[in-house]
Design goal:
By secondary structure, the chain is of the alpha/beta class. It has a single domain, classed as Maf protein (Alpha-Beta Complex), CATH 3.90.950.10. It is built from 6 helices and 7 strands; from the N terminus they run βαβαβααββββαα. It has a 7-stranded mixed sheet. It is globular and about 50 Å long. It starts with a strand and ends with a helix. The relative contact order is 0.17. The chain binds ligand CZF and magnesium ion. The ligand O=c1[nH]c(=O)c2ncn([C@@H]3O[C@H](COP(=O)(O)OP(=O)(O)OP(=O)(O)O)[C@@H](O)[C@H]3O)c2[nH]1 binds next to β3 and α3. Its cofactor is Mg(2+). GO terms for molecular function: dITP diphosphatase activity; ITP diphosphatase activity; metal ion binding; nucleotide binding; ribonucleoside triphosphate phosphatase activity; XTP diphosphatase activity. Keywords: Hydrolase, Magnesium, Metal-binding, Nucleotide metabolism, Nucleotide-binding. InterPro entries: dITP/XTP_pyrophosphatase, ITPase-like_fam, RdgB/HAM1.
């Protein structure tokens, strides 16, 4: 089977390919990202729209992810992509720099839709916000530290083993194998 991963983010696709045995094809269709504080709601709406608009053949996968910073009341959360493009990762670090509590988590929901019932799989990873280190990964990886290393200092394999996306993809892969 081919899974059509609908995303403009090559980093997400790279990570999914490490995880899934099925073919993963990247579809660069720009679905509407609805405004919601619920990642699953955003991912499911995107998966349904993408499936309907891109041929209704192979199933689609949509991944909605975000960085949730405790001291900032969960910001940037579902708006992480927008914040990355506007404020930038460096200045998100600056917002947290003077905080005593630097705890944060990454959350990811992947939604799978084949025209029948949408399925969602979630993953989260705890960490802390630090000054940027490392040049691997993408997005907020350089400022997100987990067990001593930033996500940008990890190989794709290592990042997948601990990351929000890896955890969500593991659940998805288990479900796929059974269905
Ligand atoms: O350091 C990171 N490590 C990750 O593993 C990770 N996963 C997502 N993100 C960032 O969080 C936002 C998600 O937004 P998002 O889900 O809308 O994705 P996106 O806009 O990049 O692609 P698309 O799939 O929507 O096309 C974007 O700013 C991503 O850069 C990450 N940052
Ligand atoms: Mg996006």
């Amino acid at each position: 089977m081919t899974i059509r991963f609908v995303t403009s983010n090559e980093g997400k696709v790279r990570e999914a390919r490490e995880y899934l045995t099925d073919d993963v094809e990247q579809i660069d269709y720009d679905y509407t990202e609805i405004q919601s504080d619920d990642l699953a709601e955003i991912a499911v709406a995107g998966a349904k729209e993408a499936f309907e608009e891109t041929g209704r053949d192979d199933p689609v996968l949509v991944d909605d992810a975000g960085l949730f910073v405790d001291a900032l009341g969960g910001f940037p959360g579902p708006y992480s992509s927008y914040a990355e493009d506007t404020v930038g990762v460096e200045r998100v670090w600056n917002l947290v720099e003077q905080e005593e509590n630097r705890r944060a988590k990454f959350r990811c929901v992947v939604a799978y839709y084949d025209g029948d019932e949408a399925r969602t799989f979630e993953g989260a990873v705890p960490g802390r916000i630090v000054a940027p280190r490392g040049d691997g990964g993408f997005g907020y990886d350089p400022i997100f530290e987990h067990e001593g290393a930033t996500m940008a200092e990890m190989s794709t394999e290592r990042k997948n083993a601990v990351s929000h996306r890896g955890r969500a993809l593991a659940k998805f892969a288990d479900w796929l194998a059974e269905n």
